[in-house]
Structure prediction request, 445 residues.
Amino acid sequence: MAEHTAARVVVESVSRGFEEFEPPAGPPAADGPLGWPGYDEQRTRAAARTGSDESVLCGRGWVGQRQAVLVAFDFAYLGGSVGEAAGARIVAAFEQARELRLPVISLVASGGSRMQEGICALRQLQEIARACLLTRQARIPHIAVLRDPTTGGMWVALAAAADVVLASPGAAVAFGGSRVRDASETGEAFHAEGKLADGQVDQVVDDAELPGVLADLVSLLHPERLVRPPEPAPVPASLAGGEPPATGWAAVQRARSADRPRAGAYLDAYFTRRFEISGDRAGGRDGGMICGFGDHDGRTVAFAAQAGTANTPAGFRTAARLIRLADQLGVPVLTLVDTPGAANDAAAEHGGIGPAIAEVFAAVADARVPVTTLVIGEGGSGGALALAAPERTWITADAYFAVIAPESSAAILKRDPAEAPDLADHLRLRPQDLLDLGFVQGIAR
Prediction:
């Protein structure tokens, strides 16, 4: 393959020492499996124009300090489309990743399945999807970078199936390309920034920053780095000052104070570096749920941290996604609890707040990796409990946990709102009460 191909330029921009894999054997049939008139000529012209012999380049290289398998598309070669040969190369690359136990980075720029190969091209989506699944089951991480454009089958079968999805600014990203959808359908929904807002992309990354971002991700998620079996994440040191509060109402007021440390401060103190994922992959994102992976004392720890707001369905689904991904990769999880309670307005109900919280309960219950929880502020009912690890939950001195907020308790009991402070004592929601009741394992210092 010529040294100047667009795919090789992309690969060498994010890696070094790249070695191409030998393509799977087998000469293509004349004019392809359908005998499409002039298809051989099209391929010959594409090869002459691009210096590529196919639409994908697959191999391994160094990304930062660790190796990864790279799959790079050349859009100039028949629109980066995938037929039988390209599909076989992608599947073989994932097989190599499993054999070598290396992360996969897909650098996608594709219009989808190759029309000139018809159903023989379309069925490659099944093969690629299966390759992605087998790699996930082998606990090998897959990172996709959406370049311009990423549409059709390679968006849905390859890129959208990745564990972490990055995108180039302004990249066209859609299931239907611009030539096949209604011409009036335009706007942000069909581009990287819209996919970020809709929770389908984790981060939009400039080309200049991409090598460093990929190096950090590969370092954090590389199978060689992860401990087997994973050890629990250590409990973060408390950033709270003073002793636990004397009364229940004092505990509530202290947890609601604007001056107490929030999730961002705890994450900054706990991790030397971290990467945040964003979105539930189902159309939403919630800035009040901070999720991702970070480095703590040379170990990778996943985190899901509430930021003190009433979390939306998208926030809970993002947390569930993070916990399931950490469990898949074998990474211990740290959760930080801080919410007055889950969102309960009409939008939350329409968005499925109940099933979304249920997803988090199920993810925590099903996790094979250890989950460690620190309550750092308000622990408001089920929206907080969903993130709390049974038998591995600690609390700070300026936090509380309750079945319901004292004010809501007064409303349910048809009591005067002025009685909320007394009800706070009855609820036994102080840190020391929760320790006596066996809900927490200790008060963090």
